[in-house]
């Protein structure tokens, strides 16, 4: 059975995708809409999502833009409340929103960058997961939570001696996502739900925040092999179309020839 056939179980179901205005989030949202899902894109910038929606025609599903800053709890509650009132609830959550900053952990006046990274990459993810699980459990659905992680959630990139490190708080936040995914898995079992959780950890991706962030400071990044955003979207489709008794807990995908 090909992926299109396996995706039929999601036709008409509701997906929430955070950070859908970015390269990876946009690719994921696009594939889910093409598969017939009702996609609610949570983003601070409506214009980018509207541009994506305008490019989708003759597709089975539909794309909605829900303005939301996932670091603001009231925004998250309002967004999920609107989705529940409009569509009945959430069946799939893709936690894709993330940020990376250039500041060092030991740099002066870096507090704002530190908080922004942790509040977006960790707290925002947890707030959205909390609201999604509430919706899924209330309706007793076979739901799924996808955490778009990173290879930096499993290893810290080694800086060349004498050069400015580019890691900062980002790997710490992604290591946290690795741990949070396992904690969520255990909680979903405890809550007696039919909800799966998966972490997908890509290497460098064209147009994503890590590639864009490091390219200007590290010439080597320009020449590193990269995945396409559609490759990450394909990984999401693979994870959510496994049989009911199979859960992809961690999926690491790298471009051929990656050397980080």
TrEMBL record:
Keywords: Oxidoreductase. GO terms for molecular function: oxidoreductase activity, acting on the CH-OH group of donors, NAD or NADP as acceptor. Pfam families: adh_short (PF00106). SUPFAM superfamilies: NAD(P)-binding Rossmann-fold domains. The keyword Disulfide bond does not apply. It comes from the Eukaryota. Gene3D superfamilies: NAD(P)-binding Rossmann-like Domain (3.40.50.720). The keyword Oxidoreductase applies. Belongs to the short-chain dehydrogenases/reductases (SDR) family. This is Putative dehydrogenase. It comes from Aedes albopictus (Asian tiger mosquito).
């Amino acid at each position: 059975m090909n992926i299109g056939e396996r995706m039929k179980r999601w036709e008409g179901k509701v997906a929430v995708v955070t950070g859908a205005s970015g390269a990876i989030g946009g690719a994921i949202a696009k594939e889910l809409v093409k598969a017939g899902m009702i996609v609610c894109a949570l983003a601070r910038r409506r214009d980018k999502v509207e541009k994506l929606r305008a490019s989708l025609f003759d597709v089975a599903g539909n794309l909605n833009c829900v303005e939301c800053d996932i670091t603001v709890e009231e925004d998250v509650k309002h967004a999920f409340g609107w989705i529940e009132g409009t569509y009945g609830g959430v069946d799939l959550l893709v936690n894709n929103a993330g940020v990376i900053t250039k500041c060092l952990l030991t740099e002066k006046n870096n507090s704002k960058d530190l908080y922004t990274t942790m509040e977006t990459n960790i707290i925002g993810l947890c707030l959205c997961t909390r609201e999604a699980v509430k919706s899924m459990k209330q309706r007793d659905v076979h739901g799924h939570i996808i955490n778009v992680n990173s290879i930096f959630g499993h290893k810290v990139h080694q800086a060349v001696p004498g050069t400015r490190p580019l890691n900062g708080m980002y790997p710490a936040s992604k290591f946290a996502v690795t741990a949070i995914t396992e904690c969520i898995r255990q909680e979903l079992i405890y809550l007696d739900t039919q909800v799966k959780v998966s972490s997908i950890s890509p290497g460098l991706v064209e147009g994503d925040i890590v590639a864009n962030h490091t390219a200007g400071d590290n010439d080597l990044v320009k020449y590193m092999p990269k995945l396409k955003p559609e490759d990450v979207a394909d990984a999401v489709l693979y994870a959510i179309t496994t049989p009911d008794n199979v859960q992809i807990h961690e999926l690491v995908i790298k471009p051929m020839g990656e050397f980080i």
